Amino acid sequence: MKLNTFEKIQLYLFDDDIPQHEIQLLPHEIEIRDRYRQIFTFWLDKPTLSDKKIIQYMISEVGLSRTQAYRDLPNVKILLGNVRNAEKAWQRFKLSYMIDETYQLAKDKHNPIAMAAVIDKLGKYMQLDKEEAEKLPYGDIVPQNFEPTSDVSVLGIKPIPNLREKQAAMRKKYKQTNIEDVEFIDVTGND
After folding, report:
1. Are the C-beta atoms of 23 and 8 separated by less than 8 Å?
2. pTM for the model
3. Alpha-carbon distance 75 to 72, whole Å?
């Protein structure tokens, strides 16, 4: 199986000792890999940075042109996964942990009011106060059956009789037109 450059880089992003029998990165591919690696680690350290800030980093610190930075951005995002989702999952985990800790502290202090407040917050966080959305019956969905056709009447358009002959006549008529035979008209209003 032949891998393209991005697939090779994706497999060996942080592996400098690639076995020769497995894959061979060309010098320009190593340069791209190192560039992606630098952007990847920077963005991983600062996952809340916007695409615009990452582009600015790529231009100022990595030395890319604006065009190349915009070309590299989607590839780095693929390598990184969805950073914002990872950050959100981490924040959810922290919140859940803090809620558990707060409940335990309230319980240790025998404070039923604080315990109830923590339970209320947990219920809202888990959205237990809302009805669950009805699951879509994906198994019952039947895809549309489209049949390709050259019959324009299925669209409600009246067919042109002898269309092929008319097309051939138009091609014959206008195919021989030379540019010298064409009259140019000034549509800008400037004479």
Report:
1. yes
2. 0.45
3. 5
